[in-house]
Automatic annotation (TrEMBL):
Region of interest: Disordered: 413-508
Skewed-composition ranges (Pro residues): 413-425
Keywords in alphabetical order: Signal
A Pfam family: DUF1996
PANTHER family, per the entry: DOMAIN PROTEIN, PUTATIVE (AFU_ORTHOLOGUE AFUA_6G11970)-RELATED, PTHR43662
Name by which UniProt lists this protein: DUF1996 domain-containing protein
Residue ranges annotated for the DUF1996 domain, each copy included: 32-256
Organism annotation: Laccaria amethystina LaAM-08-1
């Protein structure tokens, strides 16, 4: 599944932005190192960026990532947001395919080391039109052959070309704190709202790159079975149990290589049509077109496909009252070590690094097991996150690995029928192949042997040609984009969606 990443810079007199293809989420799991550092998050997020995404994350560890899903390899930041599901009438859930666009437009100061922030509030189930924070969240009901409509909530109508969830981050900073207790108080929105005005408040005088994340969801794939939903008017639910969209949110942790983002903010204005080649040729950054980057699962839990319930303890809580965050009384076990990889399967190299002195040993862990064969390494959680990767010489498989209870999941429904009575699916007999990071619980990880000669971010083959996109156009183009047309049209995504990261930096 191929997605689009767009990084853009804007000047007052000219518009320039960078457009590149991104392969996929690096993972879809209950991890949130900002809100829930060192432990399993309350709900599922889909994650983009550097491979060193762990329960604890900081800039130093992200810069050491084995790879990044972002085609500018100097950007190993992480961006994440809740996953979206379709709720069936029998109260089971099926995950949607989709992806994101990050649109960052303010003289601009690059994010400092360890900078992080959160936009949105997961527990909101009402809308306040006077709140800049809530104005920052919008949804487009996309119709590439007609008129796209804008909503403050998840659309209550079918959308022929899918749903685009949109969220602005604050772009004014206090200039001192890289984080705050609520992950919001160190930053503020512009004077005119989420996407207009200046940083005129003396408490927040520093203008940061404005991050605007757009996530495209293939909601149209469920149009044929909409009548079989729990709520046919609006059948979609976020992983936090939010059927309204008012609780939509997103997180960011800076992982840019030192000096690169500031250099780009100051100097990458050479092409107004989205071709990043001139900036790369000028030495501002490099490009890895067609970059693939994924990590193996950290948590023994299925998060995609069809599920009996949302992962964690997330009952659907409707509009009207602030949602309650319920504790997970039966948390899943952890899986360790975690591997990053750029091909179709993980290798013995590329172990993911935690970003804090606090390690996975602080988390609920399964006892250590003997070393396993590299050809089929069973990865169980260990009390030590520093356990070495398997050696190249096979050392044999243990006679009896720890027993794993099978997990019951319903069969994934066809787009033309609701899920039938759920059969038992045994995770132990469904090894994780690495080709689908969000698939069955990875009790086994197939480690490729021998490992490729180069598993770095630049080792994947590049696309033979580079498509140019524009926020005003509908489809990828080989020539300069036509800037005319429906302003809500971006590159049309195929079945499975696209990821778009559209990051703009405005210099005043």
């Amino acid at each position: 599944m191929k997605h689009l990443l767009t990084l853009a810079t804007l000047a007052l007199s000219a518009h320039a932005y960078w457009l590149m293809g991104v392969e996929d989420f690096i993972t879809t799991e209950r991890i949130d190192p900002i809100v829930n550092p060192g432990k399993i998050s309350s709900h599922v997020h889909s994650v983009l960026g550097g491979s060193n995404f762990r329960f604890n994350t900081n800039t130093a560890s992200l810069r050491q990532s084995q790879c990044t899903s972002i085609p500018i390899p100097q950007d190993k930041s992480n961006y994440w947001f809740p996953h979206l599901y379709f709720q069936w009438a029998n109260n089971s859930f099926t995950s949607l395919d989709g992806g994101a666009v990050i649109d960052t437009p303010g003289k601009t100061t690059a994010f400092p080391d360890d900078f992080r922030m959160l936009s949105g509030t997961p527990t909101l189930r009402t809308y306040d039109s006077t709140s800049y924070a809530q104005q920052a969240v919008t949804f487009l009901c996309l119709n590439f052959n007609g008129q796209s409509t804008k909503w403050n909530s998840l659309p209550t109508t079918s959308c022929p070309s899918g749903i685009r969830a949109q969220i602005n981050f604050p772009s004014c900073w206090d200039g001192k704190n890289v984080d705050s207790a609520d992950h919001k108080s160190h930053v503020a929105f512009l004077s005119g709202g989420p996407d207009s005005g200046t940083c005129s408040d003396p408490k927040y005088p520093v203008t940061l790159p404005r991050i605007f994340i757009e996530v495209y969801w293939s909601s149209q794939s469920f149009d044929a079975v909409r009548s079989q939903a729990k709520n046919s008017t609006q059948p979609f639910v976020y992983s936090s149990g939010d059927p309204t969209g008012y609780g939509y949110h997103a997180d960011f942790v800076n992982g840019w290589d030192a000096g690169v983002l500031q250099k780009a903010c100051d100097g990458c204005h050479c092409n107004p049509y989205g071709d990043p080649t001139c900036c790369a040729n000028a030495g501002i950054f490099t490009l890895n077109q067609g970059q693939s980057c994924r990590i193996t699962k950290s948590i023994d839990e299925q998060t995609t496909g069809t599920l009996l319930k949302l992962p964690g303890n997330n009952p659907v809580q409707p509009e009207g009252k602030t949602a309650i965050v319920y504790p997970d009384t039966n948390p899943p076990e952890l899986i360790s070590p975690v591997y990053a990889y750029t091909g179709n399967a993980p290798t013995a190299t590329g172990q993911v690094v935690d970003g804090s002195a606090a390690t996975d040993a602080n988390l609920v862990a399964r006892p250590s097991v003997p070393a396993l064969s590299i050809s089929s390494v069973s990865v169980y959680s260990s009390a030590s996150s520093a356990r070495a990767a398997p050696k190249a010489t096979p050392v044999g498989q243990p006679a009896s690995p720890p027993a794993v209870q099978p997990v019951v999941f319903p069969a994934a429904p066809s787009p033309v029928s609701p899920p039938a009575a759920p059969p038992v699916a045994s995770p132990a007999t469904s090894p994780y192949s690495g080709s689908s990071p969000g698939s069955n619980p990875p009790h086994k990880v197939n480690i490729a042997s021998p490992p490729p000669s180069d598993t770095s971010a630049g080792s994947t083959s590049s696309d033979s040609s580079t498509s140019e996109y524009d926020e005003c156009e509908e489809r990828p183009r080989r020539k300069r984009p036509n800037l005319k047309g429906n302003k809500h049209r971006r590159a049309a995504f195929p079945q499975g969606g696209r990821i778009h990261l559209n990051t703009r930096f405005t210099n005043d």
